[in-house]
Amino acid sequence: MTVITPDLEHSQPKVSDSAVPELLQETFALTRRLFIQLVRRPSTLVAGVLQPLIWLILFGALFAKAPAGLLPGEMAYGRFLAAGVIVFTAFSGALNAGLPVMFDREFGFLDRLLVAPLRSRFSIVLASVLHITSLSLVQSLAIMGAAAALGYGWPGGAGLLLVLLTLLLLVFAVTGLSLGLAFALPGHIELIAVIFVVNLPLLFASTALAPLDFMPTWLAWLASINPLTFAIEPIRNAYAGNLGLSQVVLQAPYGNVTLGAALLALAVLAMALFLIIRPLLDRKLS
Amino acid sequence: MRSWDLCWRQPAAARCWAEQLPRLWTVFDLPGAGVIELAGITKHHGPVRALGGVDLVVQPGSLYGLLGPNGAGKTTLLRILCTLLAPDAGQVHINGIDALNDPRAARGCLGYVAQEVAIDKILSGRELLTLQGDLHHLPRQRLEARIGSLTELLGMGDWLDRRCGSYSGGMRRRLDLATALLHHPPLLILDEPTAGLDLDSRAIVWEVLRRLRGEGTTILLSSHYLEEVDALADRLAILDNGEVIAEGSPAALKERLGGDRLTLRLREFSEAHEAERAASLLRDISGVKQVVLNRAQGNSLNLVISDAAVVSAVRERLTDLSLPVFSLTQSRPSLDDVYLQATGRTLTDAELAVASRRDLSAERKAAMR
Ligand SMILES: Nc1ncnc2c1ncn2[C@@H]1O[C@H](COP(=O)(O)OP(=O)(O)O)[C@@H](O)[C@H]1O
Ligand SMILES: [Mg+2]
Q: Where is the ABC transmembrane type-2 domain (chain A) (predicted)?
């Protein structure tokens, strides 16, 4: 007969237990679950690549015959566009970070996680961050590959690192925002609505599709405080091989922004967002 | 290694067993020391009072039933126990651990089967069990062995590797029971574990619960089926409108009511005043201990009588008074009589009265984290 309850052997304390292996075990398990979902329901992954790909091809074609010399540094429009679409890919990918969490809230799966003696409930958040970061980086790399195939260039070794670092900072910030929304909003319908409303306007009010000079002053102002711009311009420079931190990447109405300042702004934004949502997460996961 | 160091390194589940062992001894000379000790629990959901000061003690190794109609507050109480919900006031102790102060340690001691089974449809049963085992920090090898034995026990072998989305209600419930048992919890908490189940699954659940109890696990289950509580529980509390209205072993509760039951219907639907008049007249008969008017059942009368001989006296009196008799049935007291005695309505009627009034989707939204 199977014994269902513990015999004394089970009551013996395990020796090797400490916080770190337990944290790793629970975080790994939660992350694996998200990846299993992703692999078995790949539509999010595919749609997240297809949409930017269409942008890249359509917009690239639309302005293919733009007069030479229109863009700063005699850049071809396709090259200009590529950085914008890459950032847009990572951005929309990360914006979806809150959706699985929202579904877990709605279906009560979160309760199942919360009755378990987790070392730290932060592992639930960490798993989301790990999952969405790798997902959006993979999507962005796919778009970078597509851009290269279209002849829009490829950053060199150090440039690639700079691209990845920039994307990482942006993804952290946006993931923080999305997770915060997932706990603040009442349901997935509202979350999807917010994602939908935020997505395209942020793209248009950035330097993804056109440089600042093309914009009326009010839009140039908006674009110069848009976090997407702070990711797009460093990547554009990485593609052009300008990797110096003091390199000016944006001539904003309020002054010049260097590459270092742009990255710093993204990092501060990411940290600020996680600090802001922290009390909310503490409350919801308590 | 310092001693506190050792304590801290123990997995939570092992810690609760370790803490329970000495308590098993103290139980005998310290009345009231239980695996679960709830004191003065109150809880409001917005304006709705779900619990109004509940005290409850569950002894180690017993199977305790929480019986009550829909809306009585069973789920609220169990969620508070599982640390999913904070009470407005009161104390929660599990295995001597103050669950409000040290929820993590309390969580390690309990397995919880929720009323509504939340599963991830995309995962297979095995993947869900593995996830749950990792959340309890079980070593991989032990986890796999455990999944094997639970699969056998609950008859899940054929479908464990299929996706949960394809499971029937009974399969889901069994899988959920398995996830709750993975870490050998000394305390198992189940919220209406057999509600809506097919007979096979219900039989399996009952058998597993009996066996677990036999092996020393303390079990607390809620139910609105009085047969279930009557059949399984060593002790029970009847919860109504957020309050414990009766507590004891099923036999003792019925015994306390005493005597036989007699259900009298003057007409199929009697007038209240006629039934009330009959009630007051029947109370005078010697051997009639009590008469309760059941308004929900067409103003029928429920009599407690000292012995079977009283039945003919009742019949005679009714004839003398020329009151009509639609039906007169005799029975042994049941738990339903206990409930009826305390509330003036049967459990089934209370169930029906509330079920249609609750807006479950609104409640689910309000309960969302
Ligand atoms: N999240 C909620 N929001 C509002 N009211 C609730 C909520 N949960 C439960 N209630 C109310 O609290 C009372 C007790 O509910 P519950 O604990 O679910 O009872 P039971 O499990 O015995 O059916 C009921 O009146 C119910 O309508
Ligand atoms: Mg309930």
A: 43-284
**Sequence ranges of the domains in chain B:** 33-253, 258-332
Q: Which CATH superfamily groups domain B33-253? A: P-loop containing nucleotide triphosphate hydrolases (3.40.50.300)
Q: Which CATH class is domain B258-332?
A: alpha beta
Q: For the segment A86-125, what is each residue's pLDDT rounded down to a tens digit?
A: 999 999 999 999 999 999 999 989 999 999 999 998 999 9
In this structure, are residues A167 and A68 in contact, taking their beta carbons and an 8 Å threshold? no
CA of B221 to the centre of ligand 2 (A): 11
Burial B12-44 (b: 16+ CB within 10 A, else e): bbbbbbebbeeeeeebeeeeebbbbbbeebbbe
Side chain identity at residue A16, one-letter code: S
Task: Identify all chain A residues contacting B130, using CB atoms and an 8 Å cutoff.
Answer: 29
Handedness of CA A266, A272, A273, A278 (dihedral sign): positive
Question: HSE-up of A71 (CA within 13 Å, CB side)?
Answer: 18
Which residues touch B67 (CB under 8 Å, ≥6 apart)?
B222, B223, B224, B226, B229, B236, B237, B238, B239, B335, B339, B347
Contacts of A116 in chain B (CB under 8 A): 107, 132, 135-136
Taking CA–CA distances from A29, the nearest residue in chain B reads B131
pTM over 0.95: no
Name the B residues in 82-101 with CB < 8 Å from any A CB.
82-84
Report the residue from B82, B153, B181 with minimal CB separation from A115.
B82
Chain A 185-214, CB below 8 Å of chain B: which residues?
186-187
CB contact under 8 A, B118 and A26: no
What is the edge-to-edge ordering of all strands in the sheet holding B63-67?
A: B110-113, B187-191, B218-223, B63-67, B235-240, B243-248
